[in-house]
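Reminder to self: tokens first, then the designed residues, so the page reads top to bottom the way the pipeline ran.
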């Protein structure tokens, strides 16, 4: 078996079919790690004959490691349910699988699409394609990273990422993950959250999204996304402030 594709999914009934369609012809095995979905994500995935692994783990590295444990392929491709493998990338993956090469992992370039088909100006790169014997594990609760032994390269084709598909989903994501982000900072003994620190991280978030990442090029969508990033970091730091405030209050008692 050459390629095991591992898809991480949670309540992705709207997009998982498109994701599966993009990888079904290049994969010898598809594993969907269903992270406690309450919609028809698993039902739709089963129509493609995939292997379903259900879990309620919140740790992203544990989700990826769980998929790795179940995979039988010589090579591993990780893709999220709201992503699509482009035709060019699919051909490149097939080329790697068909012959010998000196690399054990590859960065994949990713195009971001917000609120429909509005493409973000900057291109991200993520290490997602691995020779299984060289991928040792994933680490990190939220911003996970892979531990790989060997030389790493990059492919030219794109992953297409259809994220932040509605304002409702954006806010739900912030509510869900801001608590995790805040707790990680709290456990790392983050300095006390003050008014000026909150303002600083908000200004930095907006500047990074709108200026550094060139959100201004996308018009109204760029403004909405940049303000959302500002809102998201505000909620995270407000929750961190709340944790620190309760801790200090209990110390006084």
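Designed residues (253 positions):
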């Amino acid at each position: 078996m050459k390629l095991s594709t591992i898809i991480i999914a949670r309540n992705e009934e709207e997009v998982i079919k498109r994701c599966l369609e993009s990888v079904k012809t290049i994969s010898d095995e598809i594993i969907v790690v269903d992270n406690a979905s309450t919609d028809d994500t698993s039902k739709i995935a089963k129509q493609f004959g995939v292997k379903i692994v259900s879990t309620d783990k919140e740790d992203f590295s544990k989700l990826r490691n769980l998929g790795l444990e179940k995979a039988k392929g010589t090579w591993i491709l990780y893709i999220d349910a709201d992503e699509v493998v482009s035709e060019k990338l699919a051909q490149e993956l097939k080329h790697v699988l068909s012959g010998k090469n000196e690399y054990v992992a590859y960065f994949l370039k990713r195009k971001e699409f917000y609120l429909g088909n509005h493409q973000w100006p900057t291109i991200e790169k993520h290490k997602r394609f691995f020779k299984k014997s060289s991928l040792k594990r994933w680490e990190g609760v939220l911003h996970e990273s892979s531990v790989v032994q060997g030389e790493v390269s990059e492919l030219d084709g794109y992953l297409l990422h259809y994220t932040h598909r509605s304002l409702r989903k954006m806010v739900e994501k912030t509510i869900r993950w801001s608590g995790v982000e805040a707790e990680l900072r709290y456990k790392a003994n983050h300095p006390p959250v003050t008014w000026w620190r909150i303002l600083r991280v908000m200004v930095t978030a907006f500047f990074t999204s709108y200026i550094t990442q060139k959100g201004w090029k996308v018009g109204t969508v760029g403004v909405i996304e940049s303000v959302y990033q500002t809102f998201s970091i505000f909620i995270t730091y407000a929750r961190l402030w709340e944790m620190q405030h309760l801790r200090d209050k209990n110390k006084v008692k």
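The chain has two domains: 3-163, 167-252.
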